[in-house]
Design a protein that fits this description.
The chain is of the alpha/beta class and 304 residues long. The chain folds into 2 domains: 5-44 and 103-298, TIM Barrel; 47-101, Alpha-Beta Plaits (2-Layer Sandwich), CATH 3.30.70.20. It is built from 11 helices and 10 strands. It has helices spanning 60-64, 89-92, 107-115, 118-124, 139-151, 166-172, 189-196, 201-214, 235-247, 263-268, 287-298, and strands spanning 5-13, 21-26, 47-50, 98-101, 103-104, 127-131, 155-160, 179-183, 220-227, 254-257. It has an 8-stranded mixed β-sheet with strand order 5-1-2-6-7-8-9-10. It has a two-stranded antiparallel ribbon with strand order 3-4. α5 (139-151) links the parallel β6 and β7. The protein is globular and about 60 Å long.
């Protein structure tokens, strides 16, 4: 089985599930959300990033590039149409301004790296989180890892956009998962397609079925809602989601306030950011707005 590309294996995380966790970030996603907080995870293929803030202007990488893909005249320094992804430029950069995004890491190596922190998981009630990108694009690969972690007594959690083959998920993932965080971004199918590239029919159907199955025990599933100013955090959208969750007897939701840090990543990947500098999408989420969003769900008896 060919290993998928891994962006990072990040230890000591406190934001991706209960306790202290190690998060495995997979590369590739079937959605194309306009606000993606991990734009480096969208494409399944390997990429090179260039951080102009680290660059010291020595031009050593330009001299070593046989494809002539690097130039100060290029808008993002690198002409990605010319780049052959030979990666020879990366070790030549003394300032580490160039970096490879996406590495193949064998299954056994991933297990070794996450299991070494088991004492921290045990002490804090933590574990291992499968994230991305979208980890369910590689269910055959991750199911073996999850099974091994379960045998070792580790808590497993998957963060998913919800767009996957449900039968395959039930067969490969459910037997070895403790917790599922599934994103519900926009309830309106047309708006979901406008902002995320696909409609949400399969996502909502998958959530409903998995929520029903979770009632019999074995795992828990919690919906997450990214609060994107003017897009997902409107009263209309949040009220619609609250009614949907209430109808299906969902008692808890996780709200994810907009984080503006992702904008800086776009330029390193050669992506033009369409968001205006003064846009609210480039600002930290106001506490008073977050509280107003919480009230919409709490009025429906749903804990945030």
């Amino acid at each position: 089985m060919k290993a998928p590309l891994i962006i990072n294996i990040k230890g000591n995380s406190l934001d991706d599930g209960p306790g202290i966790r190690t998060v495995i970030f997979f590369k590739g996603c079937p959605l194309s959300c306009t606000w993606c907080h991990n734009p480096e995870s969208k494409r399944a293929g390997v990429e090179i990033s260039f951080d102009k803030c680290k660059c010291i202007g020595c031009d050593t990488c330009i001299e070593k590039c046989n494809a002539r893909a690097l130039s100060r005249d290029n808008p993002f320094f690198m002409d990605r149409c010319k780049c052959t992804l030979c990666f020879k430029c990366i070790p030549e950069c003394p300032a580490n301004a160039l970096d490879r995004i996406g590495m193949e890491i064998p299954r056994d190596e991933i297990i070794r790296r996450v299991v070494k922190d088991k004492p921290f998981y045990d002490t804090s009630g933590g574990g291992v989180t499968f994230s991305g990108g979208e980890a369910t694009m590689y269910m055959e690969f991750i199911s073996g890892i999850m099974a091994e972690l379960k045998n070792k007594g580790l808590h497993t959690l998957i963060e998913t956009c919800g767009l996957f083959n449900l039968n395959k998920f039930i067969e490969l993932i459910v037997p070895n998962i403790n917790t599922i965080y599934m994103d519900i971004k926009l309830l309106d199918a047309a708006k979901h397609k406008e902002y995320c590239g696909v409609d949400n029919g399969i996502i909502l159907s998958n959530f409903i079925r998995l929520h029903e199955i979770s009632a019999s025990g074995g795992f828990e599933i919690t919906p997450r809602i990214p609060l994107i100013p003017g897009i997902t955090d409107t009263v209309e959208n949040l009220s619609s989601i609250a009614r949907f969750l209430h109808t299906h007897f969902v008692k808890e939701v996780r709200l994810l306030p907009n984080n503006p840090v992702w904008h800086d990543k776009c330029e390193t990947l050669g992506i033009s950011n369409p968001v205006d500098e003064e846009s609210s999408l480039r600002k930290w989420y106001p506490a008073e707005t977050l509280n107003a969003c919480k009230q919409i769900f709490e009025k429906m008896g749903i804990k945030c």
